[in-house]
Amino acid sequence: MKNWFIYILLIISISACTKDEIEVYEPTPMPLSIPQIFSQNIIPPVIPNNNPQTVQGVALGKKLFFDKKLSGNETMACASCHSPQNAFTDITPTSVGIDGTFGSRNSMPLFNLAWNYGERFAWDGKELSIERQALEPVQNPIEMHSEWDDVVNKLQSDPEYPELFRLAFKTTTITKELTTKAIAQFERTLISANSKFDRYSLGQATLTAQEENGLNVFLDETKGDCFHCHGNPNNPLWTDNIFHNNGLDSNFTDLGLGGVTGDTNDNGKFKSPSLRNLAYTAPYMHDGRFNTIDEVIEFYSTGLQTSSTVDPLMKKVTQGGVNLSAQDKADLKAFLLTLSDPSFLTNPDFQE
Amino acid sequence: MKRIFALLVFTAITLTSCGEDLDDNLVAKTEVETTFNFTHNWDDTAVTNSDFNTVQYTNANGEMLSIEKLRYLISDITFSREGEEDIVLDIYNLVDVTNNNNLSFTPETKIPTGTYTNVSFTFGFDAEDNVDGAYLDLNSESWAVPNTPMLGSVGGYHYMQLEGKFTNSTTPETGYAYHTIRAADGSTTPPTIQETAINVDLGPVVIINDTSFEIKMNIAEWFKNTYQWDLTQWNNMLMPNFQAQLKMNENGQNVFSLGTITQ
């Protein structure tokens, strides 16, 4: 009888440690598959703690990305301006919305977004995460011209979506925040790292003499000097993800980063785009003013315009640029084309 | 009853053994934290990123200039003691004044208290550390030097990027990019390589507690001592300019100084 107190204490202690028998559903983790060329050269991608990658989240995000329900009249999806066949951009200088109105900016290609360490997205850096970026086009009157409340209602009354949201986020109550989280998860899977140059860096391919000379033009401060803003073989993102005034204009009709920060020193600055998949992402620049890679190279060679915020790296501005020889221009283009990753365009995981 | 008593005594001992040992706080520290705070000035006028983008500084050659970007690398902080081996912290820190990043740096390794005959660091990387592609975080910052024949096929990393615009009575506002790297001349066979990292001595210090060192950079020194830098001649494309890199190294010898030490 004296021992009863000890026995009860032991039973309570042991039972408190037993596993809760109720099975709790959890989405299946799906860490990003990091390509060797990235893991060897650069730091890991940025995945927000409050939106981990899951199999169900990515699948939901993909369905949403291609679903026209997200637009006001259900004629446009995210993929309308971000087409897989064009490295997730489109082919017009600026993009047309559901009402036939064109915006003022070129649609940015989408790949390797999780490696944007500064997490400023869009040409002007106004979006501070992929999740937040995904909110904008839906409600932009010259883009998808919808209201998030309407979109959420449509998804909620859909026969499939509530269950897909439950699988992805453990709730059938759909919100715009969960919708953009799913889209962001899918967008983070859009990884491009299988270009000829990637294989060359891994010792699996060789460059032609012309491509090698083009690389040297790219890396030569007295010639192309592209590497300060567009990466190098040690930074295979081929962008610094930073904002520069690259000398497009003397007077700005679009303030770019300056329009976001309100700092006049940022006027005319736009994000350096990645040079990966350049072959598929024409036209070029934030307003799509150049139709071909040749035009872009010619601009940097002879077309620079001066202004108070032009980047100090844009040298010989008064002479229009570094005046590359015809051979160097051709070689530079040959090198740039080695950054193309055709397998990215046809990856079945990225198709509707 | 005896068992209950024993159980209570055991519990009491267990619980009290988890308490903080207050005596620990009375023992003098034998190892302390060191912090390096990087400040910047133009001949004693403080410079922060809020002063950037305005043409307001005059260099020794009479050119007016602005600063738009300033970031630089320091490494191998070393503590020297009489009769003992140097304590070398095999670390690096990329000071980014433009974005106010890493202006304060506390190495993970603690330092024994005592009298040090010298504290020093390396501006840039020495030959042992300047290994092409070796540092993923620096690669991600696009801090690498191209590994090309023109630059001696040695790659490595920038030491400093100082950029802005300059002007004088005859030159309109023009960009400059004062980038320091290991000097390399790829036009010779074999390439001529000269190490241009700078050893910066801060002098003796007695360390008795956690210590903060103020490391001052006088930016004006890059343009005046001992070589009076002419920005109209050397303003851009300086990475493959072997002679310019040697002059940068020359001028960099007196750029850094020790400011306040607090313990």
Sequence-ordered SSE layout with sheet pairings:
The complex is a heterodimer of chains A (352) and B (263).
Chain A: H1 4-16, H2 36-39, H3 55-65, H4 78-81, H5 130-139, H6 148-156, H7 161-169, H8 176-188, H9 196-201, H10 209-219, H11 227-230, E1 243-244, H12 257-261, E2 270-271, H13 293-302, H14 326-337, H15 342-346
Antiparallel strand pairs in A: 1-2
Helix pairs in contact in A: 3-7, 3-8, 5-8, 10-14, 13-14
Chain B: H1 2-17, E1 31-32, E2 34-42, E3 45-46, E4 57-58, E5 64-65, E6 69-81, E7 84-96, E8 104-105, E9 111-112, E10 114-123, H2 136-140, E11 160-167, E12 174-180, E13 183-185, E14 192-194, E15 198-207, E16 211-218, H3 242-252, E17 256-262
Parallel strand pairs in B: 2-16
Antiparallel strand pairs in B: 1-9, 2-3, 2-8, 4-5, 5-11, 6-7, 6-10, 6-11, 10-15, 11-12, 13-14, 16-17
Question: What descriptive keywords fit this protein?
Answer:
A: 352 residues, mainly alpha, Cytochrome Bc1 Complex, Chain D, domain 2, two-stranded antiparallel sheet, globular, B: 263 residues, mainly beta, 17 strands, 12% helix
Condensed summary:
With 352 residues, chain A is mainly alpha-helical. Chain A is 36% helix and 1% strand.
Model description:
Chain A is an all-alpha fold and 352 residues long. Chain A has helices at residues 4-16, 36-39, 55-65, 78-81, 130-139, 148-156, 161-169, 176-188, 196-201, 209-219, 227-230, 257-261, 293-302, 326-337, 342-346, and strands at residues 243-244, 270-271. Chain A has a two-stranded antiparallel ribbon. The mean pLDDT of chain A is 94. Mean pLDDT of chain B is 92; it is low at 18-23. In chain B, strands 4, 5, 6, 7, 10, 11, 12 and 15 form an eight-stranded antiparallel sheet that branches. Chain B has one domain.
